[in-house]
Design goal:
alpha+beta; four-stranded mixed β-sheet; 4 helices; 25% strand
Length: 325
Amino acid sequence: MRILSLKRHRSRAGKPYNGSTIKQEPIVSDPQDPYANPPGWTDPYEDLTDLSGDDPLPPMEPPTTPPAQPPGSPLLTGLIIGLLLVALSVAVFQLLRPEDDGTAIETTTTTAPEGATTTAPEGATTTAPEGGTTSTLPNVDPYPPVDPPIPVDKLKMKSNGLRVNDNDIKDIVFGTSADEAIGRLVASFGEPTQDTGWQVSTNQYGVCADDLERVVFFGPFAAIATKAGGQEIFNGFRHDLTFGDLTNPAADLETLSGLKIGDKVSTLKEIYGGEKVEFSTDPKLGDIFQVIGLSSGNLLLWGPVEGNSDDDRVIGIYAPDVCGR
C-alpha cells in the first residue's frame, strides 16, 4: 500500500492536490440566540411558511352574500294602497260630479235694491253668508192693504216709527204687527215697488247679521220687518233717494219736524237747532249726519249726506238701527 505524504501534497487548505481542487466545507456552529436567551432556546417562527413572495397567498375567506332586505309589512302595504284608492275615488267623484242635482223645485225670487237678489224655495233652508247660522225661511205672502188709506201729509217719520196725524188711526210704531203696519202703507202708497221676502240679514238695513228680515219698498221708503219670537213685526224704516222711484207718493214723506230727503244741510241744522247735530263717516255709507237728543243723549234720526257743507243735500233719513236698539 502506497502512503502519500501529507506534507508533500497539502501545504494548506484550498491548494491543488494532485492536479485537483479540494472543496472546503463551511464550518457550522451551534445556533446562537441573537437576544442572549438561555441554552435550549428555539426559534418560535421556524415552522412558519415562507411569505417572502414565492409562495401563494393563503386563501381568503369565501365572500358572503349580504342578507336580503326583510320583506315589508303586509298591513302597512295594504294601508298605503287603500289610501291611494280613496284619494283616486275622491278625485274621480269631483271630476264627474254634476253642477247640480238636476231636481227642479219651486222657488220664490225677489230682487232687493242695488241689484241684490235673494232666491229661496218655499220653506227651504238657507245658509247665511260668511259662515253665519243656517235658518229656515218662512213662506212669503204679500201684505194685503189695511184701510183706510192715510194721506202722505198726515204721516210723519219719527225715531220709533210713523206718526199718524189722525185721531181715528193709531200711530204705526215699531213692534206693530207687520200685517197691520205694512198693510196700512199698502193702502196708502199702493202695491210695493220691491219686496225682498224673508232673508238672512247681512246688516245692510240695520238688522243684526244672521237674523231674519223682510224689506218692503214703496219708492224711496223702505219698511223693515223682522221676526221676533215667531211674530212678524214692523221694526224699522229707511227713506233714501238712492232707493229710486221718486214718483211714488212715499217720496213726499217728512219727519215730525219737517225734514225731507233732498233738503240742504243748512235746513237740517236749522230744523234741529234745539238738538245736537253731528257729522261723521260711516264705513258703508260715507258721510252721514246724526240728530241726538240734547237732553236724553239718544240717537233720534240719522242718514247719509253729500257732505257737511250748508249746500250739500240730505240723501237719506233713517230710524235708529234695529240692531242698535
